[in-house]
Amino acid sequence: MFLVEGNKTIKEIPASTYRINEIFSVNPSDLILESQSITPISSAELKKISFLQHPKDSVAVCELKEESLLKETGVQLILDGIQDPGNLGTIIRLADWFGISQIICSDDTADFYNPKVIQASMGSFLRVNIVYQDLESYLAENTQPIIGTDMNGTSFYEYPFPKNFNLVLGNEGNGIRPEIEKLLTDKITVPRFGKSRATESLNVAMSAGIILGQIFKQK
């Protein structure tokens, strides 16, 4: 089981492949779902069961689902050791925004059922297929181009992105690990225009948003 918090996201669950087991709400009349009973609770009780500092309305206990790989994905994201739950949640939200149907995560990437990931994704986890794999084995068998982000790569403004490919985003501190880097077919970077060297790199979720915007501009 995992928790989903907030009426807005909870209302979207029935249209997804996830199943709700229980719902607890301070105001059940605000959250009417077909064939779903809701247990009324007090604000004090909600605060005890919520992972949020200032919970608002409801918490749903949902069932984990079995992972399954999608075969036809077009552009898909490959996450190599992303550790910060906020970054992972934001990347899931970006994938949903740009119509990316699948994200492949390394086994040591943050758990996407982490409450902080679910919250940061703002419901987008319901629409993006997320699968954990041994990346080295998965990419070695994958036939699509494997493009990785790297400070020394080609400017992504000048790079002619193919129609279908894997975009690899590396760990916040260490980037893409060597065994994955050797499988890359190309490297791209977001070029720096500012003169200050105080900013060493971009946040990984920020980089993902900038790059995806350029990719889909070309499309």
How is this fold's topology laid out?
Elements: E1 2-5, H1 7-12, E2 20-25, E3 39-40, H2 43-49, E4 58-62, E5 75-80, H3 85-97, E6 102-106, H4 115-121, E7 129-133, H5 135-141, E8 146-155, E9 165-170, H6 178-181, E10 186-189, H7 204-218
Parallel strand pairs: 2-3, 5-6, 5-9, 6-7, 8-9, 8-10
Antiparallel strand pairs: 1-4, 2-4
Task: Explain the overall architecture.
Strands 7-6-5-9-8-10 form a six-stranded parallel beta sheet. A four-stranded mixed beta sheet has the order 1-4-2-3. The chain has two domains: 2-62, no CATH class; 75-218, SPOUT methyltransferase, trefoil knot domain (Alpha/beta knot, 3-Layer(aba) Sandwich). It is elongated, with a radius of gyration of 19 Å. Helix content is 27%, strand content 24%. The N and C termini lie far apart (39 Å). α3 (85-97) packs parallel to α4 (115-121) and α3 (85-97) runs parallel beside α7 (204-218). It has 219 residues and is an alpha/beta fold. α3 (85-97) links the parallel β5 and β6 (102-106). It is built from seven helices and ten strands.
Briefly summarize what is shown:
This protein is of the alpha/beta class and about 220 residues long. The protein has seven helices and ten strands. Helices cover about 25% and strands about 25% of the residues.
